[in-house]
Predict the structure.
Amino acid sequence: MRCVFYFALGITAVISGLEAQPPAPQIESIRRDQLKADVFFLAGDFFRGRLTGTPEYRIAAEYLASRFERLGLKPLAQDGFFHRFDLVLSRLGRDSDNRITLNAAGRSKAGKLLEDFYPLIFSADGEAEGRLVFAGYGIVAPKLGWNDYSESIKDDIVVVLEGEPGADDPKSPFDGLVTSEYANAISKTLEAQSRGASAIVFVNPSHRGKGTRAFPASARAYWPEKPPHLERYTLASRAERVRIPVLQLDPVWVEQAFGKTAGELKQRAEKPGAFIRSENQSLRVAVALNRFIVEDRSVVGLLEGGDAQQRQEAVFVTAHYDHNGATAEQIFPGADDNASGSAAVIEIAEAFVLAAQSGQRPKRSVIFAIWGSEERCCGPLLGSWAWVENPDWPLEKTVAVLNMDMIGRNEEVPETGGSKFNGLKPQTAQSNAGSVNLLGWSYSPELSRMADAANRKIDLRLLRRYDNNRSNLLRRSDQWPFLQRGVPSLFVHTGLHPDYHTPYDRPERIDYSKMERITRFVYQLSWDLANADGRPRFLSPRTILPPEAE
Ligand SMILES: [Zn+2]
């Protein structure tokens, strides 16, 4: 088991002057009344919850870009302050064009769409046929010594389980309790495709209801009859790479094909070498989806550094501006999530601009990014993933990312919190007054120490408790794609509360004086990073930490 602890690493002083950082210039310009004005505006009813694909969402992006323009930031893209990316929205094609047939020992059995199987939203169209093989979780991770493909699968149809091995094991090399990127269904699909599979079939053992069949209900939840309030999208840059049919199948079918229960298959997949080649069982599949492109944007602006060399590197200050929209009855205003972070990015940008105007330009460049479609599935973080896959600033010249998502409340976990609070200890809002969670700290001890130094005068209670936690919070905001690409990143987050993702996440419920302190802290840290001699290092492979806050 990989188990390295930091105190054994002998951190060298790449970052100098940690003890006495002078206050960043113009830090007093970050004021609660200005933060409040922006949160009230962005979380106002007019914006109707800033849902991807709506006119209000587009206006929010225009507004943020106009603020960057007015501050005098520079655009990175040729056509202004937008990083553009395309999303794909899918609808099921005709029933008769979505088919499966299992052939075994001369007998054939046809499956029914949404009863026995369904295509995934990023599936390619087309038909495929092949012998069924089972390949565990369908994961190849050379760095972790894991390979579920011990045999060739050329022209076969590969069956894999959703998820990853050791999902409940805090010491799992697959990011402990946090779901690793190896569990991503598109990554698994591309792996199978690169090995010549003619199609890939996903199975979730929990769809095997006790006595009853759970599969049709989950199929209907995945493809509801009417378009859902919250649509599922795929990044076009990823969907374009998928050339094989991708299906979800009722575990009952897989049990028949391999002569093992879904539970037995899952147990087998927990160890390498789970591979099974079925005896004369072949599947024929056909998938037909209708696709629509939805254009999307993140808002990005640059403040150039003052040092001729160091200005080629940048510190990122980020947040996301989208939220969960509105239904006919109610609006999800998303004040804490994440008008708060968006407003803070603007205030920090203004402080940097005022500093530069007063003759104190940071040595490195600073990039302000307000991501689109963080909330949108599947998987989320679409704007920041689109950036790391097609960045307008090189990732290797990205010194650190400071991401703010929900920075205006006190974490509050009720005793009977339900699934929303999975993995989090019950705690009162009062107990978290003055506290803020730092996530991602375990990937860069140097960045983590700089955070402490930046906080010295501001004196927030910095809590490091969710980097290895069942809540998956670490991968639930826009620092995650950067961590996956080896960029030191921190997620600054006051925590979940009962109003999270409800119509009650309203601007009047934000604690603006706390938010002012957090915004000043992130400004101070970004200032320190922009002026330090060295860069914080990224620790890889990452340490497996003890489980936190179970
Ligand atoms: Zn958020």
Residues 72 and 353 are 8 Å apart (CA to CA).
